[in-house]
Amino acid sequence: MICNRARVIVVGTLVLILLWLSSSSLLRLYYLLRMPFVWKASSADAIISQQHDDFDVTFADYDANYSTYATGIRPYIPRRIHHIHLGLNSPPKNWLDARAECLKHHEFWEAHLWTDDNADSFVQENYPHLYAMWTNYPFNVQRVDALRYMILQKYGGAVLDFDLACKRSLEPLRRFEFVAPAANPAGFSIGMMLATPNNPYVHALVDNLPVYNQVWPFLPYATVMFSTGCHYASTIFTLQSNRTSIRILAGPSDQPRMHMLNGVVNTPLFRHFGSSSWHGMMRD
């Protein structure tokens, strides 16, 4: 009797969800749910490697003074580093220390700090058609995530989470047009992204923000991840017809998680303090 009642509840819930969703919403949900299953095949040619890119993913070959210019490699990504902090609470000291470490390793890069004081006017002036949506996101982290894409599209450079303390310069990655670290078990992290200005893929991320702007009742994490977060960005990646210039930074075959930013980790590029920044922005 209990099992039958549970089945009725589950089936009834699914029917209500299907009735609530439009046909276009169902298609988006399909794309979002299939992402983990198609990611490996979709990203196979995007993974940076020694064989295909002549690039050492351990970064052991690149000293602190490495320059793309000096090695004769054309750099695509400008020397700009962006950090974002929106909300009422000030960044904790360890985040400020982490940003200071990144600025120390990028002293010749333009440094930009985006806060409520300048982010609002930036979106209003450069993306007026998205301004109302952006200001009305139910969670602050959605505003932060969407702002990442807008900043990258406009200015290019590197956008970093506040809780990433740099251990070295990101200079070697400037040879690519877009790069982000692999996530576990699928997709990539938007905690670190580097891109050229007006990058076609970043353009797609910005253009699809209204399309995927949907609140999932009683599912705050799904609302964030499916509308602006890593899952959203990874889904848009799988829908690109041309992914040749989009690069994913993973580790060598014997250490595929080398650059993953899941939890408190040390990678060749960063000390990551964990997911506290994400949870904090959910509350602001």
TrEMBL record:
It comes from the Eukaryota. The keyword Acyltransferase does not apply. One of its GO terms (cellular component) is membrane. Keywords: Transferase. One of its GO terms (biological process) is mannosyl-inositol phosphorylceramide biosynthetic process. Gene3D superfamilies: 3.90.550.20. GO terms for molecular function: mannosyltransferase activity. It comes from Aspergillus nomiae NRRL (strain ATCC 15546 / NRRL 13137 / CBS 260.88 / M93). The lineage of its organism: Eukaryota, Fungi, Dikarya, Ascomycota, Pezizomycotina. Belongs to the glycosyltransferase 32 family. The keyword Transferase applies. This is Putative glycosyl transferase.
